[in-house]
Amino acid sequence: GLPQRVDVYEVGPRDGLQNELRTLPTKDKARLVEALVAAGEKRIEVTSFVSPKWIPQLADAEELLRLVGRKPGVVFSALVPNLKGLQRAREAGLQEAAVFISASEAHSKKNINKSIAEALEASREVATAAAGMGMRVRGYLSTVWGCPYEGHVPVERVVDICRQLVDMGLYQLSLGDTIGVGTPRQTEEILSALLKYIPLEKLALHLHDTRGTALANALVGLSAGVTTFDASIGGLGGCPYAPGAAGNLATEDAVFMFQGMGVETGINMDRLVEAGELAQELIGRKLAGKFLQAALGE
Ligand code: HMG
Ligand code: MG
Predict the structure, then answer these.
(1) Which keywords accompany this UniProt record (predicted)?
(2) Which whole-number Å values give the CA distances from 77 to 11, 97, 280, in the listed order?
C-alpha cells in the first residue's frame, strides 16, 4: 500500500524566488515563509548561502533569517555550495543545510563552476564540517532525468554519484528533475536502479513541472514508497542556469493529491491557498499551480 504519511519539503522561497525576475523585499520573503509555516509546513528551504553575484535574488539571506519568525518543530534549511556557505548558514542559526551537485558535467560547470568530481569534493568538505558542528546535511542531485546541455544522463552515473553522496553521511538525497523532462516509466527505472543500493527512506523527489509531468512522477514515487516530496508554493520556481526550467511541482497540487489518496501531510489546505495567494500578490503575476487557480476562481 501507499505510505500513510509523507513530508512535503517546501522550496518556494529558495528555488522559486531564485528564478524570479523581480527580487522581493526581504520583509515580503519573511511574510511568505511565515504564511507557509501557518499552513503547517514543517520543512522549508528559505534561501541560499551562495555567491550573491551568481544569485542576486537571494543576497539577503542573513537579513531574512534575522527577520523571519521561528516556530518549534519547523526546520528551516538553505543551500550551501561550499564551506563559506556553511559558515554563513551556521552563523544565521540554521541547524540544517543542503549541498547540491549535478549528474552532468555541463550543468555542473554552468551552475557552480565546478566539475562533478570537484563538486563531490566540495560536498564532502561541507558534510564533514557540518557533522563537526552538529548540523544535518541534505543533498540534491540535479539533471537526473536529463540535462539542458547534454540531453540524456545515464542512470549508472546517477547511481554512482548518489552512492558517494550517501556515503558522505547526508541524511537525505533529493533527486532533481531540474528541467522537468521526466516521464513515469523513467522515474520507475531510476528509482529501481537506486533502490538496489540506497534505502528508500533516504530518497526524496524534486520534480519540476516544465512539461506537466511532475505530479505523475510524484505518484510513481509515492507508489514506490518515497515519503519526501519537494514542492513550491503556487509552483514558483526553476533554475537560472537551466534554460527552460519552470516551476517546481506546486505544493497545493501535491498536497491535494496526497490527502485525496488518504496520505497525510499535516498541511492545512485553506491556509496553504492563502499562502499561494500571498505569493502571487508579492510576485505580481498569476502562478502556475492548478489547485491554487481553481480555488481562487471559485
Ligand atoms: P566561483 O566564482 O567559481 O568561485 O563561484 P569562488 O569560490 O572563486 O568565489 C567567487 C566569489 O564568490 C568570491 O568573492 C567568493 O568569496 C564568493 P570575491 O572574491 O569575488 O568578492 N563566494 C561566496 N560568497 C558568499 N557565499 C558563498 C560564497 N562562495 C564563494 N557561499 C560558487 C562558485 C559555487 C560560489 C558559485 O558558482 C555559486 O554561488 N553558485 C550558486 C549557483 C546556484 O545557487 N544555483 C541555483 C541553485 S541549484 C538548483 O536550483 C537546482 C536544485 O533546485 C535541484 C534541481 O532542480 O535539480 C537544487
Ligand atoms: Mg530545483
Answers:
(1) Lyase, Metal-binding, Pyruvate
(2) 9, 5, 23
Alpha-carbon span 97 to 86, nearest angstrom: 7
Residues 6+ apart with CB under 8 A from 206: 11, 140, 174, 175, 176, 177, 230, 248
Rounded to 5°, angle at Cα 171 from 92 and 33: 40
- Residue 243 in grid coordinates: 534554460
- Per residue, the 3-state secondary structure of 14-34, as one string, reads HHHHHHCCCCCCHHHHHHHHH
Q: How many CA within 13 A on the CB side of residue 95?
A: 8
- Position in ligand 1 atom list of the atom nearest CA 174: 54
Please state, in angstroms and rounded to a whole number, the distance separating the CA atoms of residues 118 and 109.
Answer: 10
Residue closest to 139 by CA, chosen among 96, 109, 182: 96
The grid coordinates of residue 84 equal 563559506
Residue 285's pLDDT is 83
This model of the complex carries an ipTM of: 0.98
Ligand that lies nearest to the alpha carbon of residue 248, given by its number in the listed order: 2
Q: Are 11 and 235 in contact (CB under 8 A)?
A: no
C-alpha cell at 272: 496553504
pTM of the model: 0.97
CA 111 / ligand 1 centre spacing (Å): 8
Distances (CA, A) of 64 to 43, 48, 77: 16, 11, 12
* Catalytic residue (one of 239, 250, 279, 283): 239
